[in-house]
Amino acid sequence: MMERSDKYLSNIEKASSIPSIDVLMKICEVLDTTPDYLLLGTIQGEEKIEENIIQKIKILAKQKGKIEKLSSFLDWAIENDF
Q: How is residue 81 annotated by DSSP?
């Protein structure tokens, strides 16, 4: 567990105290999240992954028949909770 007082954690929540990096990392561990998500609401690298996928889709769109295969695969992945 956190091994910190409720008052200390409450002060962090209210922004009355600033946690050390060690405490921040422990909070993330306990909450099973990342500092990026906790502080910014984003998953580390999420935007980079999306940009990469979009770039690949653009490349496939230029190749005959490839975009249709990708679309079919995506439909399958959605239907099968992939």
A: T
Q: How far is CA 51 from CA 47, 56, 69, in A?
A: 6, 9, 20
pTM: 0.47
Domain ranges of the chain: 6-40, 46-79
Asked whether 36 and 44 are in contact (CB, 8 A), the reply is yes
For 60-78, the pLDDT digits (tens) are 888 888 989 999 999 999 9
